[in-house]
Amino acid sequence: MIIFPGEDGLDVVIWGRWTQGSMRFRHFDERTGMIAMLESLRLLSSEEARKLEDFVFLDHCPIYSSQIEEAVLAAHGFLPA
User: In the chain, what's the furthest Cα-to-Cα distance?
Assistant: First the structure.
């Protein structure tokens, strides 16, 4: 599972055993609802849910916090997804 923060909420991508078309995506407007749903689906434990509630994306996401420039990523072969 990967959680992408955005200006208008959070995008979650999940997948199981890798096969073509196995990834699923969902947008959430707010963190609390996202955590509740992921926990109810047993994709997060209660401990992981607590940690995610306190997680600060700016502290851990270099692109989101602008610690790395887009031009530098492009120069090293990283393409927009």
Answer: 41
